[in-house]
Amino acid sequence: MSMAKSSQAMGYDYPDARGHFGPYGGIFVAETLMGPLKELREAYEVFLKDPDFLAELDIDLQHYVGRPSPLYFAERLTRYYGGAKIYLKREDLNHTGAHKINNTVGQILLAQRLGKRRVIAETGAGQHGVATATVAARMGLDCVIYMGAEDIQRQAINVYRMKLLGAQVVTVESGSQTLKDALNEALRDWVTNVDNTFYIIGTVAGPHPYPALVRDLQAVIGRETREQILTAEQRLPDALVACVGGGSNAMGLFYPFIGDREVAMYGVEAAGDGIDTRHHAASLCAGEVGVLHGQRSYLLADEHGQVIETHSISAGLDYPGVGPEHAWLKDSGRAHYVAVTDAEALEGFYSLTRQEGILPALESSHAIAYAGKLAEKLGPKKIVVINLSGRGDKDVHTLAAREGIEV
Amino acid sequence: MSRLSAMFEGLRSEQRAALISYITAGDPQPAATVELMRLLVEAGADAVELGVPFSDPMADGPVIQRASERALTHGVSIGDVLAMVAEFREQQPDVPVILMGYLNPVEVMGYEKFAKCAADSGVDGVITVDMPPEEAVDLSAALTTRGIDSIYLLAPTTDPGRVHMICEQASGFVYYVSLRGVTGAGHIDIAEVEQHVRDIKTQCNLPVGVGFGIDSSQVAADMARFADAVIVGSAVVRRIEQANGDMEQIRQSLPAFIASLRRAIGKHPQPLAATP
Description:
The complex is a heterodimer. By secondary structure, chain A is α/β, with parallel strands linked by helices.
């Protein structure tokens, strides 16, 4: 299984050698990190084409993560929305409960190959932190997770899970105390400990090669979906729908379909209180081009270029930037980006919970909410695949608090 | 000749390293910045490095992060910073001013507009921390056209091939980051820095400045033995922070610290300029 094969076969060959997706991407970091990024780039180029490495990764994906994840026909949800057939790609059934582990099992193998004894990561909702702490425990590596003080409050269960797994969780109290500040702090750690530390970035963002590396590791989602839908329906779906914060679950689903022009792609951002308020996190729908965290992409910043605080009910989407490949897919028109509000996402959450007995993560609930509208519009002859990127157990406290219930 | 070149040439004949002192523009308040720049110069700084506040200062340690946050509570923009430089320039026609900041405010302003405004204000050099030379071609061209130097960082992790490439693209001077870490970190290995700087000098015709983590006159003196410029940031900003916004206290404490650095690096200490 070659990770890079499908992209070249499609005539879509991004990023370029320096990590650019059109005008986006690139490497925008302090000089100290240029050396370690070169080391990572070389490892990425060698190992993600190396049959032994890929075989080891496949075994881990199968036996440790639990892949392939099912592509489930959501019959009652389909009837409920009254339109296109809705399938769910069940990433919520992976070990640790989200798609994040697909990436961390791959990056920890790279860390091992590079002889690094210590891994660090940033986390927002805590899913990437848990997925990193999990693989670090399995490999016996030291693990430090950076998490904003505000996110630590709203994702207390995941914080405790990370600690159980042996990770040190560092509270980040600078700036807006959320994911972007956790990323800043992780970069500061990396710059200080470059010699022994591997930075496991959790999404398709950051300096090259991270956007390409994380995409290639997450593309297993789209490859499986493609096979599974062909088996189930003998044809490709009409639309793919996935939520977008940094954009890794969406990129993983979209990437193997980029060459299939008949398959529409919808990335769903967090509109928070509404895109016309300042309380949202919809960088592609409402941002401008900017540079943050090592890359050029769409960014939510003020007129002076200061990054602004974002809002979403879901910590995992509460980020002012977005992966550069999404910026490129937006500009080129290959993918569409839309946004749904906190209230709509909650409706999506309750719909799936009651119709199918599946508690989705609040992040994934954004995709469900939009897919419902889309399915209705497309009508019954069409097929929509939703990436159910994570399960909602971690959000139970947030939901209960909104309903005024003490759990 | 640019102000930076003139400064280094003058110091070569004096046989001493330059003292470059950093403050964050707008800290503790916008109205203080031009006066603080003047205080630094009068106490012995040869050039001023002025930080442009940014919401996400990824390469900075806690001291400069907090300075940036204080400045941003006053809404200090890059345009405001350039206006401060212009005001300083009216009083000090010859002292070089270097802007240090992150790319996004420049990106949002636009490279051409930034280069023009910076030149009009009297900026001499620009350090964009998160923009390595590979990505800096357009910005660097815009700055060069206006006679502004593009100053790049070299790090302990920069391999010899990159050192050569960066020195080819840099102008004014190159800035050697003396440790693996953020600004203000406290684990400098002077012998290692000396070895790196001497290696860089075999490949590079530009002056080599050294900064990050220089927090005392003793360390400044050690660096001045082999560096062309000694850059002190967090240690200065910390003294501003400790005054808690009390300008009178800053006027007391800051010049004495700068003067001690200046004495430490100077083979032939100059008498302090008279205060107005």
